[in-house]
Amino acid sequence: MNFFRQCLILISSILISLLTFVGISNADGHKGFKLGVVTFLSGPAAEPFGVPAWNGGKLFIKLLNEGKVPAPYNKKGFGGMKITAIPIDESGGATKQVQEFRNLVQRDKVDAVLGYVSSGDCMAIPSVADELKALTVLYDCGTPRVFEDASYKYVFRTAAHAAMDNIAIAKYLIEKGHDISSIAGINQNYAWGKDSWKDFSVSVKKLSPSSEIKNELFPKIFSGQYGTEISALMNSKAKVVHSSLWGGDLQSFILQAKPRGLFKRTQVVFSAGDHVMPGLGNKYPEGVILGARGQYGMMAPDTELNKWFYKSYMDEYGVFPAQPPYRMVQGLMGLKMAIEKAMEKNGGKKPNKDEIAAAFKGLEFDSPGGLVQMKLGDGHQAIQPHAIGTTAKDKDGNITVTDIVRYKASCVNPPNGIKAVDWINAGFPGADC
Amino acid sequence: MSEKLYNNLLFQSIFLMSFLILVGLLIPNWLVFVITKAIAYGLVGLGIITLMRGGLVSFGQGFVFGIGGYTAGLLGTQAGLTDAMLLLFVSFLFTGLVGLIIAPLLARYRDIFFAMLSLAFSMVLYGILIKIDAIGGSDGFVLPESTYFGIKPSSEYADYILYVVAIIMTGFISILLRYYYDSTPGLIALAVRENELRVEYLGSSAFNVAVLNFTIAAGLGGMGGALNGIALGHIDPEFTYWTTSGEFVFISILAGYLSVPAVFLAALLLELVRSFSGRYFPDTWQLILGLFLILSIIFIPSGIGSFFKQFFDRLKKSK
Fold it and tell me: How large is the average pLDDT for residues A390-410?
């Protein structure tokens, strides 16, 4: 009996301490800027994607708070406000993320949420964000549908969507004279994978109507085992194999396909292929055509801002930054610029979410990956320049990216108001290359 | 007279419900939301407990949870039905009906065979749902905002109103369940748990008890799924995944089969621990959650409900 009573006391004390926690978390001041950051911190997408992204974000926030970032980002924090970041794990599926998002907004009362790598999460969050009137910056996810199928007041995406990656790869294949008479694809069975394959296969068909589709494979996301799929791809004898696999899935696919000779027999293209390079090192296959979802990492432009970021990241973590940290920093830069623009207008007070949202619309800002323009989805969706390259071994035997072709943002992104797939089907009208 | 009223189940329940509804006005919005979610999970847990009383444990309550959620979601998006109360009720009935159809198949099995077969059902549904692109495939889809008697509440009050609806509907269901547990068929379930063969010899059917309990559990699970979907505003096939089913089993083990309110308390506790460990230990939240599960199984093996029972037993003795 005594034992049970103690247990009861234990439980109630846990509850009370939880509630005090709440009290504390709600009580701390509102002078700074509270930012919820959602990215993969566990599961197969964490090590190659979520963690490097957050490393980049953490470093950039630290440098911003110390005022050590070069112009035009040299103001401390966000317009002088100290940034406090609350990291949250993105794993667990869209439903769990909706709940975590509510917790961030309603319990932690964050001023903005920056996050979401998975397209499934990006499809689920925006409607809740608008319902709760919470400023939300999607920093990475790719599906074009977010702002094509709906419009949101408080949601922005500071990176180009997946159409660009796949259009540019199709163009690259043709410009470099690769044989695209037959294509096959292995993409994950959710928004990102399906949309990527659709954009790529339709682009190829448009640019080279005679090419035929051999195989369309859609394994489940995070399945990690691709033995059967690799056999199917080898048997199909397609000239080009397209894949938008990412994170741990991409690592597993490369490690399983390489010994079976897939990369030697066919031309493999990865629409988001660079972010596993730091992890795989020289195990990365040669002769693969890849994009980094922007001019990132080894394909980054030679600008002062990029040199500064590349070096700071390299010095801090000892590896080169690939796509993920670039993307998160790009999101932070966009948010910072929007906030500071809003502060200029309201006379330097802390802007509210309506003011920030108004300033964010149609914003243009420089990032390490080039000029980002919030041009699509009525000023809520970014476009940015792109680069595609081919992997090769340099003279020391290290894997690098060569044969880089750069594309203007307006060359590989649809104009405002047209859905990506319709634009591709219409034969890229108005593309400025 | 007053003492009689004090001991009356209906009176106690209505008192508790009105208390919770009033408390909902005082606590912050996020906690209202967490409690609503805990009620949804608790409803499914209640279903498992109904089964547990008859000696069965289902590892596949995600099956009914998913059916309930998708019923509410599809009625909302395809048929334009947005009344939350109606959606909850229809999901309850429809999922109960599905339960009644598959129950005769499941009720022939016991123990691990029952558990694994129910798990198989839920994973088959999962496999189907992620393949149907028309309803979002593995991304799921967004539910329209719900209405109440044709009125759409403003977003500040939407959470609270759903909370009130959840408490009232769940409250009355809990009362009915308490009466059911104490009724003849409800008590036969306990006897089946002890000795199935003897129950059969005494002229009752263990098979019928299992069918009835499974149907009730299915209806409850469906309503929980609908409530969860409406509260979150999003539904995906994860609802039917085995890890979701595992959570329900854990909630019922943490609660024990002795008390109805304990189930909701267990669900709330799990929800709070999960959300706070995710908030304060973003890198290691699974570890914290795992430790909590292990410790609670070691130290409260017969569930939170056993505290309640002992408390009330002592109360009676001291009188």
Answer: 90
Do A178 and A94 lie in one domain? The reply is no
Whether residue A57 is found in the same domain as residue A135:
yes
Query: What distance in Å separates the CA atoms of residue A386 and residue A202, rounded to the nearest whole number?
Result: 19
Query: What residues contact A68, with CB distance under 8 A and at least 6 apart?
Result: none
Strand ranges across the sheet with A381-383: A83-89, A33-39, A112-115, A136-138, A155-157, A381-383, A370-376, A364-367
Structural domain including A120 reads 29-161+302-383
Q: What is the pLDDT of residue A52?
A: 92
Q: Does A9 touch chain B (CB under 8 A)?
A: no
SS3 label, residue A332: helix
Residues A46 and A157 in one domain: yes
In a domain, A430, yes or no: no
A 214-243 residues inside an 8 A Cβ radius of B: 220-221
Cβ–Cβ pairs < 8 A, chains A and B: 112
Distance from CA of A217 to the nearest CA of B (A): 13
- Which of A22, A191, A220 minimises the CB distance to B139? A191
Q: State residue A16's pLDDT score.
A: 62
Give the residue ranges of DSSP H helices in chain B.
2-7, 9-26, 29-53, 62-78, 84-106, 111-131, 155-182, 184-194, 196-201, 206-232, 242-255, 260-280, 285-299, 305-318
Instruction: Answer yes or no: is pLDDT of A22 > 70.
Output: no
Residue A250, pLDDT score: 93
The answer to whether residue A287 is domain-embedded is: yes
Q: Could A128 and B239 be called an inter-chain contact, meaning their C-beta atoms sit closer than 8 Å?
A: no
What value does the mean pLDDT take over residues B259-273?
Answer: 87
| Chain A residues whose beta carbon lies within 8 Å of the beta carbon of residue B299 | 7
Looking at every residue in chain A, the average pLDDT score rounds to 88
Q: Please tell me whether residues A167 and A195 are part of one structural domain.
A: yes
Query: For a pLDDT cut of 90, what percent of chain A falls above it?
Result: 55
**Within this chain, do residues A393 and A272 fall inside the same structural domain, yes or no?**
yes
SS3 for A153? Answer: coil
Number of domains comprising chain A: 3
Per residue in A268-292, pLDDT tens?
A: 999 999 899 988 888 899 999 999 9
Helices (H), B195-304: 196-201, 206-232, 242-255, 260-280, 285-299
- Enter the pTM of the model: 0.83
Can you read off the two tokens belonging to residue B8? 């009356």
Q: Nearest residue of A to residue B311 by CA position?
A: A5
Using a CB-CB distance cutoff of 8 angstroms, which residues of chain B are in contact with residue A220? 130, 138
Q: Is A106 within 8 Å of chain B by CB? A: yes
Residue A212 sits in the same domain as residue A255: yes
Do A156 and A101 lie in one domain? The reply is yes
Tell me, yes or no, whether A432 lies in a domain: no
Domain contains A433: no
CA proximity to B227, closest of B129, B89, B120: B89
| E strand segments, A147-249 | 155-157, 182-186, 212-217, 240-243
Q: Comparing C-alpha atoms, which of B96, B225, B95, B223 is closest to residue B171? A: B223
Are A190 and A267 in a shared domain?
A: yes
CATH number at residue A324: 3.40.50.2300
